[in-house]
Amino acid sequence: MPDALILGFDTSAACCAAVLLSGDRVLVVRHEDMAKGQAERLMPLLEEVLAEAGVSWQDLTALGVGIGPGNFTGIRIAVSAARGLALSLAIPAVGVSALEAQAFGLSDVVVSCLDARRDALYVQVFGGETSTAPAFCDLDTLPQIMPVVGASCVGHMNEAIAGIFAGHPVSARMPMAEAIARIALQRCGQISLPRPAPLYLRGADAAPSRDVAPAILP
């Protein structure tokens, strides 16, 4: 039986990134930094990834997509693409948060943090009974909503957060898109997977993006 072929992609940050996995093997990795233009670049990028590996859309077993938190428009672009592709290809699409992807492969208790801009943070704790829901906060309120001790701290401001929790700063084990694809590989066989949905922890910026975000249907 051939290995599962998983295409993972993410546009929740200022980039357009994709990884193609065959089982545990990484076949192709693409990462392009861009502040805007993900809507126009995503599908051509995914086509290039498949072409480089010599496979077609019909060969895919499942999709993994980054659902945020992050850039409001970027999240909607990737989630909309994943939903449309999953429907047309009749394969599952697995939504993966950037916080979970960043913590993937790290052991024990992990505090995962992303930059929410304007001195704010997106934070989530992973690991047994200490696990929490994703939160939007700042360094001052962080200790009150996440009273953990001795955790591994990964991502934005990990050294400062490690000081708060008497923990230690660590680096992510792999690129975001690869982690998304590997988590999708683990989950794609589950029954009744929910459709990917954007993870928003803060409202959109007051000034709307010049790019028109795709509509996300229920």
Chain-wise SSE layout:
Elements: E1 5-10, E2 15-22, E3 25-33, H1 38-53, E4 62-66, H2 72-89, E5 93-96, H3 98-103, E6 110-117, E7 120-126, E8 135-137, H4 142-145, E9 152-155, H5 158-164, E10 168-170, H6 176-187
Parallel strand pairs: 1-4, 4-5, 6-9, 9-10
Antiparallel strand pairs: 1-2, 2-3, 6-7, 7-8
Question: How would a textbook summarize the main sheet?
Answer: 5 strands, mixed
Q: Structural class per helix/strand content? A: alpha/beta
- Helix run count: 6
**The CATH H-level homologous superfamily of the largest domain:** ATPase, nucleotide binding domain
What CATH first level of the largest domain would be assigned?
Alpha Beta
- Bulk shape: globular
Cα-to-Cα separation, first versus last residue: 35 Å
Can you tell me the number of structural domains?
A: 2
Q: Order of strands side by side in the largest beta sheet?
A: 3-2-1-4-5
What would your notes on this structure say?
With 218 residues, the chain is of the alpha/beta class. It folds into two domains: 5-98 and 174-187, ATPase, nucleotide binding domain (Nucleotidyltransferase, domain 5, 2-Layer Sandwich); 106-170, Nucleotidyltransferase, domain 5, CATH 3.30.420. The chain is built from six helices and ten strands; from the N terminus they run βββαβαβαβββαβαβα. Helix 1 packs across helix 2. The longest helix is centred in the middle third of the chain and has 18 residues, at 72-89. The chain is globular and about 50 Å long.
